[in-house]
């Protein structure tokens, strides 16, 4: 550096090789730091945008799923309503096509010959001619239906008796389980019910005939089993003085309703007989 003139010494110091290398390194470090900073900032921005996009997509998918679910429910509702409407339409159509006009009284009842549990003697249906009778088919081991219906029958008969101006109606219980309902058993059974109750039993063949004549359904299991229930229809049958069918009363009626309906039918039948006479 001694050979350089005084006016060139500051320039020489500026462009000294060592200074140049150090300055270059410093600039490179500054540039790299700035580049890294910008890169980090860009990465954070991209991550934030990505997170926002993911949230938006998830929300959109959730809303889409909910909408799809509501659409499915609505579609199922429409289909269900359509099925119900079609069923009702078909039912009405079939009923209208098969509607039958019935005149007169149904062919219910007929002659029978059974055993009176009280006396052990044979009782024929003709033995009750000249009297009004109210028949019920059941079995003594029935746990609930038969006791309830027989109690109802007794209350209805008491209401009719209380009027004082109507003929006596005789209640008759016909068993559909002659295997277990022996005369001895029915004698004990009838004590819990109306004082006029007559209990009848008989051979299977006779029970089958009278049940068929009164359109009574019943089903008992076959075999030697002793503990069983018998499924059967549940009606009272009001029979006239000549053994003709007058009216039936279903399980849905109360004792009061049975009594009022029975009184109306009795009065009508008495008036009809008077006109014939």
Can you put this structure into words, describing what you see?
It contains 6 helices and 9 strands, in the order ααβββαβαβαββββα. It starts with 8 loop residues before the first helix and ends with a helix. β4, α4 and β5 form a beta-alpha-beta unit. It has a 7-stranded mixed β-sheet.
The counted number of beta strands is 9
Order of helices and strands: HHEEEHEHEHEEEEH
Shape: elongated
Helix percentage range: 40-55%
**Strands ordered across the widest β-sheet:** 2-1-5-4-3-8-9
Specify the structural class. alpha+beta
Amino-to-carboxy terminus distance = 165 Å
Q: How is the biggest beta sheet arranged?
A: 7 strands, mixed
Cα-atom radius of gyration: 50 Å
Mean pLDDT: 80
Provide the β-strand percentage band: 5-15%
User: Which consecutive residue ranges, at least 5 long each, have pLDDT under 50?
Assistant: 1-12, 17-22, 94-102
Annotation field: number of helices? 6
